[in-house]
Amino acid sequence: MTQSLIFDMDGTLFQTDKILEISLAEAFAHLRSLGQWDAGTPIGKYREIMGVPLPKVWETLLPDHSPEWREQVDAYFLERLIVNIKAGKGALYPQVEEVFETLTQNGHPIYIASNGLIDYLSAIVGYYGLDRWVTEVFSIQQIESLNKSDLVRIIVNKYEITDGAVVGDRLSDIRAAQDNGLLAIGCRFDFAQEDELAQADTVIDGLDELIAKLRQATGSVPSS
Asked: What is the pTM of this model?
């Protein structure tokens, strides 16, 4: 019986693309104003690496900039993300609240394990009231390795999870599930890649399919 569900945030629960382009454009406009960038905003490159921890994002997008400049842009980008979240420019994926309500009503604890930073995750959870259902939110910022498998292991150990699933859209989520003996449920959403999803135990095209997939895999979660 699948008892616990660990969800990724970006590209799984939260439609990051709705604020991503805006915030990234603002960050690179800031760089241009400081004379540190003279090209277009590399939104395509960011989409390719979406899901990796932010320090690795800036290493990729700003390979010729110093660590100090990367840290400055990182802080500005995070600030703009939070401003745009609180302005209501983002959105949860369809059925997040309904699925969370069903899982909670049937005694299945919900956790979030994300490569997002603590303040960013807190803004999303606070704005949408996800703490009504989520037991605890875990950020990659809490561990030195920046490895999602290690982050999920912290949840598994803290809550003594022996049976559960990780729900996410990228390979790091799938590997985190497999490395911790959990079911890997891939999400074919905005940032997903087919070669990565092929490694999941099962794949959904929308969160409205999750309950049925869990019933199929474990027979433990009712459909309503």
From this structure: 0.89
